[in-house]
Design goal:
Helix content: over 70%
Strand content: under 5%
Structural class: mainly alpha
Shape: globular
Number of strands: 3
Strand order of the largest sheet: 2-1-3
Order of helices and strands: HEHHEHHHEHHHHH
Number of helices: 11
Largest sheet: 3 strands, mixed
Radius of gyration: 22 Å
């Protein structure tokens, strides 16, 4: 256990004054596999994370330097790539450390910081995908006014509003999490500090947090999903009215990548946090968690690059220039 900083000691003293049992660190077990498989998995995840960072950085750079990609849709795609880079940076380094050491301790403060940024980034992706569905709705259902509605200033405002809303929500949630009382085991059977494993080892305070999640969680998920569904109902209805088959295919192709990303994101989130955990083994939970913390950020740039002619063209032009 490393030495605590002054800020960390202050927080621990504050918790102690509030009659909380002070836990200075948690021990994350990681993956229950033998050494040979652990080394193979470590090497595989290192490659995946390197490709994730490089792929997402490539999209951010292409959107920044290519004039053909200076549109609202690609601006939002670049924001999604930035989010994926931050998520990978938050989860991957310590996950790989745990895998290499076959379990490792994490400081209480570091655990809370990791949880805070993880929650913030996941909620931001939820909001950003909703904004992207609205962008596609305006582009297809109201094309004549698209440029005037989705101007640069408005797009930046939407992203800033998403970030501000996210950090306000997560600050409230994190404050509630700090009220949890850990008086028993400090062993977490997971590869990062996630909310569900922390609730499992909490001695008290979990009931209030679960109540808060049950009140705040459903609207925070259902409202974005409802907006996305309604947007695509109008989008599909508009596309079906287009007389030309080529025009219909072109209109739908601008939405297909977004639909795939939305399906992967919400599919994994619901499988981990909404589907009842009773009867679900820790191994299954970890595999599902790997999907949205490691593989989703890896797949997103592939979906948006391989299925997008504009990005492929910008990539070829950039390579040709250099």
């Amino acid at each position: 256990m490393h030495n605590l900083t002054t800020a960390e000691l202050s927080l621990l003293i504050l918790l102690q004054k509030n009659n909380h049992t002070v836990v200075t660190e948690f021990f994350l077990l990681g993956f229950h596999v033998d050494q040979d498989l652990r080394i193979l998995l470590f090497s595989f995840l290192v490659c995946i994370n390197c490709c994730t960072i490089c792929g997402n950085f490539l999209i951010v750079i292409l959107v920044s330097i290519s004039r053909n990609l200076h549109t609202p849709m690609y601006f939002f795609i670049s924001q999604l790539s930035i989010m994926d880079i931050l998520l990978t940076t938050d989860i991957a380094p310590f996950m790989l450390h745990i895998l290499l050491k076959n379990g490792a301790a994490i400081n209480f403060i570091d655990c809370m910081i990791q949880l805070y940024f993880f929650c913030a980034l996941e909620i931001f992706e939820c909001f950003l995908l909703t904004v992207m569905s609205y962008d596609r709705y305006v582009a297809i259902c109201n094309p004549l006014r698209y440029s005037s509605i989705m101007n640069n200033e408005y797009c930046v405002k939407l992203v800033v509003i998403c970030w501000v809303a996210v950090f306000c929500i997560v600050i409230i949630d994190t404050s509630t999490i700090l009220m949890l009382n850990f008086c028993g085991t400090n062993i977490i059977d997971h590869f990062f500090c996630d909310l569900v494993p922390l609730l499992k080892i909490a001695c008290s305070g979990a009931q209030f947090l679960e109540l808060e999640i049950s009140v705040v969680g459903p609207p925070m998920l259902l409202i974005p999903i409802t907006i996305i569904i309604v947007s695509y109902v109008y989008i599909i209805s508009t596309i079906l009215k287009i007389p030309s088959n080529i025009s219909r295919q072109k209109a739908f192709s601008t939405c297909s990548s977004h639909l795939i990303v939305v399906s992967i994101f919400y599919g994994t989130i619901f499988s981990v946090y909404v589907v009842p955990t009773k009867g679900k083994s820790s191994t299954i939970s970890k595999i599902l968690s790997l999907l949205y913390t490691v593989f989703t950020p890896f797949i997103n740039p592939i979906i948006y690059s391989l299925r997008n002619q504009d990005i492929m063209k910008a990539m070829q032009e950039t390579i040709f220039v250099f």
